[in-house]
Automatic annotation (TrEMBL):
Keywords, sorted A to Z: NAD, Oxidoreductase
E.C. designation(s): 1.1.1.88
An individual GO BP term: coenzyme A metabolic process
Pfam families: HMG-CoA_red (PF00368)
Pathway stated in the Swiss-Prot or TrEMBL entry: Metabolic intermediate metabolism; (R)-mevalonate degradation; (S)-3-hydroxy-3-methylglutaryl-CoA from (R)-mevalonate: step 1/1
Family: Belongs to the HMG-CoA reductase family.
Protein name: 3-hydroxy-3-methylglutaryl coenzyme A reductase
GO molecular function, one term: hydroxymethylglutaryl-CoA reductase (NADH) activity
Catalytic activity line of the entry: (R)-mevalonate + 2 NAD(+) + CoA = (3S)-3-hydroxy-3-methylglutaryl-CoA + 2 NADH + 2 H(+)
SUPFAM superfamilies listed in its UniProt record: NAD-binding domain of HMG-CoA reductase, Substrate-binding domain of HMG-CoA reductase
């Protein structure tokens, strides 16, 4: 993908967009067969993915455009049912592109496994005993998954915590062993669970306790991805609002979310509006990413904003987002779901770390899109205009009626299903 800047994409028909992407060498004929077939996820494949299958559940797949991240262009597949998300991400990506693009980084690719030990006679003594055997335990974990080590990954560290140390603690004391594993390009849940389970007998012998849970933590705080953007105020100017007014409005909106969990949860939902569609389109586990993101937002004891927005001495708006990113480019359903495979091809990322960085950049863009709208015209103007087509369809409009009714709803500033039903009846007369 040479460029993610495709002017006029929004105004094309679906067929024109597909043809254009084919001429841009984004697809091959085999790819298009999957994407355009009536059954992009064959029922047979679905039946092998989960239990009690009766069909599949399609979502719209759109492309987030204009993204430039660390100097590389990305067309970003986004699977989502909510209108205005893809448009808003692409709009902000264009602004950020004109400001030099997003910069991103990761802290590494290390996922966390947890092993719970109860019933030890002296938790402090066994903690020391486990730490003494740290290297042996790491070797044992790696022996349970040699192919990962051959790829350059594997277990690399181990920590021990004692929970409920206080004698008046409501719950019993326990030893929690954290196993840190470089899972390379896999999300790594099954890899880590296999390793943690393999260590259980050795740990029981070492501690004299009983091992209960042996499972991945969905808060992988050694697998963080970060995105940053620096935007001169003149790029933020919109309608009657100066760039400085937009910038200050965004910062005030952030300060509200940073101070109030009731606002933070909606602010963060807006960030996940960008993140989940990419996680879903790429066949990743969005429940894992959601759970980790919200845990990270509460890491200092109060649930707060996932992003930060500030201004520098030159008056530029600075946005930053850091989140755990337990996503992969292999494993799980990624190599099974035909559209997920195609999404990876369209994204053209070379590693799980790169995918994580793209995803946080989309989250940061989505947050700015929402805050910019909230700080200026309000969210409804743009959102409802895009929502009007869904309202028209919900009211029974079909074919050319959809555009006509959606336009009337916007003109009459009444984007409601009741009003749309009246217009459908009027149209049919
Ligand atoms: P897999 O079990 O599919 O393991 C990934 C496999 O990919 C590895 O076994 C490896 O096979 C292969 N592989 C090929 N190339 C690479 C590479 N470059 N880097 C790493 N591995 C590579 O998936 P995961 O362990 O990632 O688990 C993800 C799945 O687990 C998701 O579907 C998730 O929903 C689910 N899950 C989630 C849980 C949670 O979030 N709490 C709990 C349990 C499951 P080999 O080495 O054998 O060649």
């Amino acid at each position: 993908m040479e460029t993610s800047r495709i002017p006029g994409f929004y105004n094309m028909t679906v067929e024109e967009r597909r043809q254009l992407l084919t001429t841009m060498d984004m697809f091959t004929d085999d790819d298009t067969e999957y994407l355009f077939s009536k059954e992009p996820l064959p029922t047979d494949t679905a039946d092998n993915m989960i239990e009690n299958v009766i069909g599949t559940f399609p979502l719209p797949l759109g492309l987030g455009l204009n993204f430039q991240i660390n100097g590389k262009d990305y067309c970003i597949p986004m699977a989502i049912e909510e209108p205005s998300v893809v448009a808003s991400a692409s709009h902000i990506a264009k602004i950020v592109r004109n400001a030099g693009g997003f910069t991103t980084e990761t802290t590494g690719r290390v996922m966390t496994g947890q092993i719970q030990v109860v019933g030890c006679s002296d938790f402090y003594a066994v903690k020391e005993a486990v730490l003494q055997e740290k290297d042996t335990l790491i070797d044992a974990a790696n022996n349970a998954y040699p192919s990962l080590v051959n790829r350059g990954g594997g277990a690399e560290d181990l920590e021990v915590r004692i929970l409920n140390e206080a004698s008046d603690a409501k719950y019993g004391q326990m030893l929690i062993i954290h196993l840190y594993v470089d899972t390379c390009d896999a999300m790594g849940a099954n890899i880590i669970n296999t390793m943690a389970e393999s260590l259980a007998p050795v740990i029981e012998e070492l501690t004299g306790g009983k091992v209960y849970l042996r499972i991945l933590s969905n808060y992988p705080d050694r697998c963080l991805a970060r995105a940053r953007c620096v935007i001169p105020p003149d790029l933020l100017q919109t309608g009657d609002f100066s760039g400085e007014q937009v910038r200050d409005g965004v910062i005030h909106a952030y300060e509200f979310a940073a101070s109030d969990p009731y606002r933070a949860v909606t602010h963060n939902k807006g960030i996940m509006n960008g993140i989940d569609p990419v996680v879903i389109a790429t066949g990743n586990d969005w429940r894992a990413v959601e759970a980790g993101a919200h845990a990270h937002a509460a890491r200092e004891g109060m649930y707060t904003s996932m992003t930060t927005w500030s201004r520098d001495e030159q008056g530029n708006l600075i946005g930053e987002l850091e989140l755990p990113m337990s996503v992969g480019t292999v494993g799980g359903s990624i190599n099974v779901h035909p559209i997920a495979k195609l999404a990876h091809k369209m994204l053209n990322v070379n590693s799980a770390q790169e995918l994580g960085q793209v995803i946080v950049a989309v989250g940061l863009a989505q947050n700015l899109g929402a805050l910019k709208a909230l700080a200026t015209d309000g969210i409804q103007k743009g959102h409802m205009a895009l929502h009007s087509r869904s309202v028209a369809i919900a009211a029974g409009a079909t074919g050319e009626m959809i555009d006509m009714i959606s336009q009337r709803l916007i003109e009459e500033k009444e984007i409601r299903v009741g009003k749309a039903k009246e217009l459908v009846e009027e149209y049919k007369k």
